[in-house]
Every structure is written in structure tokens, then in C-alpha cells.
Task: inverse folding
């Protein structure tokens, strides 16, 4: 058995932080790890809820596609903001927990970085162009499908959906990798 800073803590120093000393007690390590899982869970949950509940529901229930699109756009903006905040919290909790920047280069952390990048591209490169086209068209519902503005809007919509799909897939991969990290650390005791 290795050196233990806290006799009642089952974690050995090298298993906790990759060094011969324990940087935090078990409660703080649990809190930081919980922040990582909670942040990723909230982000994934909001993405799934918007994509599979709010968006389809808005297009079924609201009177026009224009109203539904406005509602989904509003929800997407909030989801993006919450997602970026969650991503930053995840990375900061990981950094605080491990006390090494190398932890930000692990596969799980890189999945979170990818999620942030895809979200920022969607919010700042794609969404504003879609909003401008929406204004130019006046009504998406009343615009002919062969109208160049509608064609461009449809292309951007496909890009937006692809970016959100990428966020969801990266998040699922990140969750799997975070669990795998936890299991591999747990197997050392």
C-alpha cells in the first residue's frame, strides 16, 4: 500500500493525482469529479431535450413554421450558452482536480474541447447567417423552396444540425471516456 495523507481515505496519492502526494481530500476530489459529470450530463441532456422534444414539438404545435423556428432558435441560443459554460466548468474542475494541464489533453477533455468549438462555430458563424436570411425572406414558410435565400438557409440548417450532432456524439464519447477514466482509477485500489 502506498503513502496516504488521510488514513481514512482509500485513495493512494499516486492513484489520485499522478504524483506521490494527495492534493485534495476525498470529499474535494468527489466534488470536482461530480462537477465534471454534472456539467457534461446537463449539456448532453439539454441537447437531447432541444433536439428530440422541443424542436419537433414546436413544429407540430405552433401555428407556423416561422413561430416554431423562432422558438427553436431561442432555445438553441440558451443551450449554446449553457453548453459553453458547462464545458468551461468541466475543464476547470478537471484542471483543479488533477493540477496538471496534461489532463486537458486526455481524450475525455478533448471531447469537451471539441464540443465547445462546435458550439461556438454554430452560435457565432452559422446561427447569425440563418437569422439574417430569415429576416431577408420575411417568412420561411411563405418562401418558395427554389428561392436562393431559402436554398442557402436550408444549407445552413443542415450544417447547424451536423454541428449539433457532432456536439452530441462528442459528448457521448466524452461521457464514456470519463467513466472509463474513473473505472481505471478505481481498479488501482
Result:
Amino acid at each position: 500500500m502506498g503513502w496516504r495523507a488521510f488514513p481514512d481515505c482509500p485513495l493512494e496519492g499516486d492513484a489520485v493525482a499522478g504524483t506521490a502526494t494527495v492534493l485534495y481530500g476525498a470529499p474535494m476530489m468527489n466534488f470536482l469529479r461530480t462537477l465534471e459529470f454534472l456539467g457534461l450530463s446537463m449539456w448532453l441532456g439539454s441537447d437531447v431535450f432541444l433536439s428530440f422534444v422541443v424542436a419537433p414539438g414546436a413544429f407540430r404545435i405552433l401555428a407556423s413554421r416561422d413561430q416554431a423556428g423562432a422558438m427553436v432558435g431561442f432555445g438553441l441560443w440558451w443551450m449554446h450558452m449553457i453548453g459553453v459554460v458547462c464545458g468551461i466548468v468541466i475543464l476547470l474542475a478537471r484542471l483543479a482536480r488533477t493540477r496538471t494541464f496534461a489532463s486537458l489533453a486526455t481524450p475525455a477533455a478533448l471531447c469537451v474541447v471539441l464540443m465547445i468549438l462546435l458550439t461556438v462555430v454554430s452560435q457565432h458563424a452559422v446561427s447569425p447567417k440563418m437569422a439574417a436570411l430569415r429576416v431577408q425572406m420575411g417568412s420561411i414558410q411563405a418562401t418558395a423552396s427554389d428561392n436562393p435565400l431559402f436554398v442557402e438557409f436550408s444549407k445552413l440548417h443542415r450544417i447547424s444540425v451536423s454541428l449539433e450532432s457532432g456536439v452530441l456524439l462528442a459528448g457521448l464519447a466524452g461521457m464514456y471516456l470519463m467513466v472509463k477514466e474513473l473505472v481505471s482509477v478505481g481498479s488501482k485500489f
